[in-house]
Write a structure and sequence with these properties.
Blueprint lengths: L4 H18 L1 H38 L5 E4 L26 H8 L4 E16 L2 E11 L3 H5 L2 E5 L4 H5 L4 E5 H7 L9 E4 L2 E10 L12 E5 H7 L8 E6 L5 H16 L10 E3 L1 H44 L1 H9 L4 H37 L8 H27 L3 H6 L2
Parallel strand pairs: 3-8, 5-7
Antiparallel strand pairs: 1-9, 1-10, 2-3, 2-6, 2-9, 4-7, 5-8, 6-7
Helix pairs in contact: 1-2, 1-11, 2-9, 2-11, 2-12, 9-11, 9-12, 11-12
Length: 416
């Protein structure tokens, strides 16, 4: 009576584990190659998942209806040599504060925020920081960037209009400049100019707004006077009213900007309206490049493991030639011998896959603990890693398994 498939699988797994114990060095090399390939899949998938979650949180902090107006927007990575043909943004007019005020007056728009960014020196007493992220915002900036002013206040429309020298610092910058002190009311220097700290802003850590990065916000009107920055890249965030849809607000914004810029019917927009969905789509197109890298790196590891499978299984076939002959003499079919060796090969690579998953999870934990990226192991990556490990074992184990299955029982019994 022939053995059941389950018993044959158990027998093959047992033989594979015996082979690992008997040939520790050879088996370790096989397992290592597969483990590296699987670790790359798990680690990169975890990092990409964390980055996507972080980007989603950034966009959610702005509110689900918020959309953005940019001078130019190109999805994905864009490499340019600086020429007009390869840098179409050069032909786009700058966005202006006047246009932002025009959009604020539209019926479907609740509020807008203007933003430009730079980095510069910030100091207080003997504490000097060479490069701090400085943002020039409009009065409605907290609605857009998220977080909360936990002490003091933000700057008012009157202070914004007067280009007041006031600043709202984040908690990290406060800890660096005023350890153990209340930052409110202190005078700091930004780009060498005195500013009064009027508020403390706390923000959740995310990929692009790292809570561990010192940052401060000042009125945009002041920013343009004191900051050293790359001009021409003002951004406008638009918050539709509760009663208006995003489409309604976008239609009004588009019509207002086209009329303001004198665009005729049929002419293309010389500005870009970008919704959160479009930003996510653009970001996902960038992450596809990381997936290609992940595929290439993991393939190398799996190939190394596969070559190891061929080597160790060929040795196993040679060492067990008489055993194969005995089994065939007792009635074992070619299919049963083939199945046994394929199970053994797949078990070898599966052990490597399990080791790789453990290492990948460890890398994901380190990324989550040491960086603002909330890396997490997605279930699909575990399934892909397991499947890749088993398929590698079966694919590379096919040749030695078929060789074992084709052995002549008489010649195998004579083998010494």
């Amino acid at each position: 009576m022939s053995a059941s498939p389950a018993s044959r699988v158990a027998e093959g797994i047992g033989m594979a584990l015996d082979s690992i114990r008997a040939n520790k060095v050879r088996a370790s090399l096989t397992i290592l190659g597969v483990a590296i390939g699987v670790m790359v899949v798990i680690a990169m998938a975890s990092a990409i998942t964390g980055i996507n979650r972080s980007v989603s949180r950034i966009l959610e902090s702005a509110g689900p209806k918020t959309f953005f107006v940019y001078r130019y927007f190109q999805a994905g990575l864009n490499v340019s040599d600086g020429s007009d043909e390869l840098s179409p943004w050069r032909r786009m007019p700058w966005l202006s504060v006047r246009e932002a005020e025009l959009l604020r007056s539209l019926p479907a728009v609740r509020d807008v925020n203007v933003a430009e960014y730079s980095s510069g020196p910030v100091s207080y007493a003997d504490e000097r920081l060479k490069s701090v992220r400085v943002a020039g915002f409009g009065p409605a900036w907290v609605l857009v960037t998220g977080g909360e002013v936990v002490a003091g206040r933000s700057f008012t429309p009157v202070e914004y209009a007067a280009a007041a020298r006031v600043a709202v610092v984040n908690d990290k910058l406060a800890d660096m400049l005023f350890p153990g002190l209340d930052p409110i009311g202190k005078t700091i220097k930004v780009f060498g100019q005195p500013f009064e700290v009027i508020g403390l802003h706390a923000e959740a850590a995310s990929l692009f707004t790292d809570a561990d990065e010192p940052r401060l916000a000042i009125p945009h009107t002041t920013f343009t006077k004191v900051a050293e920055y790359w001009k021409g890249w003002l951004e406008i965030a638009v918050l539709p009213t509760d009663g208006a849809t995003v489409a309604d607000a976008q239609d009004q914004v588009t019509a207002a900007l086209r009329a303001s810029r004198g665009l005729k019917p049929g002419q293309e927009n010389n500005f870009a309206l970008v919704t959160q969905d479009k930003l996510l789509e653009s970001f996902n197109s960038v992450t596809q490049g990381f997936f290609l890298v992940m595929l290439a790196l993991s393939s190398v590891g799996l190939m190394v493991g596969g070559v190891g499978v061929v080597a160790i299984m060929m040795i196993s076939v040679t060492e067990r030639t008489r055993e194969i002959g005995v089994r065939k003499a007792l009635g074992a079919t070619r299919r049963e011998i083939l199945f046994q060796f394929l199970v053994e090969a797949a078990t070898l690579t599966l052990v490597g896959g399990l080791a790789g998953m453990a290492l990948g999870a460890l890398v994901a934990w380190a990324v989550r603990s040491l960086t603002p990226v909330p890396a997490a192991v997605p279930l699909w990556s575990v399934a892909v890693a397991m499947a890749a490990s088993i398929v590698t074992g079966i694919a590379f184990g096919m040749y030695p398994a078929s060789r074992a299955a084709r052995l002549d029982p008489v010649e195998a019994l004579r083998y010494e």
